[in-house]
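One chain is below:
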Amino acid sequence: MGMQALGQDSLVSATGSYRLQVCAVIDETADARSLVLEVPAQLRERFRYQPGQFLSFRVPCAGKLLTRCYSMASSPLCDARPKVTIKRVAGGRVSNWMNQQVQVGDWLEVLPPAGHFCLDESQASDPARPLVLFGGGSGITPVISILKSTLHSSERPIRLVYANRDEASVIFRDELRQLSQDHPQRLQVIHLLDSLQGFLRDAQVQQLVGEMRGGDYFICGPGPFMDTVERSLLALGEAAECIHVERFVSPPDPDEVAAQEAIARAAASESACELLLVELDGQQHEVACQPGDTLLQSCRAAGLEVPSSCEEGFCGACMCTVLEGETRLARNDVLSARELEEGWTLACQSRPLGARVRLKFPG
């Protein structure tokens, strides 16, 4: 495949990512393995993460730099190092390389943690609020991070529904069994196997929720699995804002990104923005725009340190709200339809339209 691990020349790569060393490799099943990463002291703050977030890896392949996102199965509250779990995908260039070639001691190019598949901190420790988790296949990865963290930090009751193809496909089987034994009054794990019960159905979802209604729901797995669960929960009358779905897609190859970028820049250049107002950390800044530049490029040119990470539209680190004016979003693999309706956009992929645009970054 022409892929290779990186050497230890510097902790920061030329592409703005960081070099982290693999300190442990765990074979979870026949087609899934976990990589534990050593984060040096000087990068600890940069790689501080929330349960449910992911890391993005940049992997050289046949002259291109491919980017892939893998959720952390570790908990920042009870695991010393971040751990990502990668399931082999048929024809997957990066997932197969990660499963077959990466060894302890290898250095990988990694972007800082990102993602919004996380508990609302204001409700995270409410002991009366149930937490219902749905994991399908390797979608268990961010779900188990949330599960372990909630067990550690609160007294909330938790129910995990974990669907797999068959018994041999169950990732973290022993760890989940141990967690259930350690927390018998709070944690219930329900395993569903396609080979025995068939695929999950709407009525089944509603039965599995049972008395745990009115809490928070986190769903990650294959597309049809997530659609079934989300549809069933909404039919039950559960609040949409309490239903969290994590959808992953593989970013396009770099040449495709460049072509998309050129088209978006040309389209936006026809409508120059005269004034960009940016609210950051409680202060408002006036930013000049160059025709065709993204919101992120304009902010950086003005010396503003706005949050960002992948700069390819899939991590969500640069999310901001458009308070006034219009913007054109080129690529979006992270914002939901509801978030778009609420005015959220991605600074790295969005360009201002019209004479005046006003933004607000969270925080």
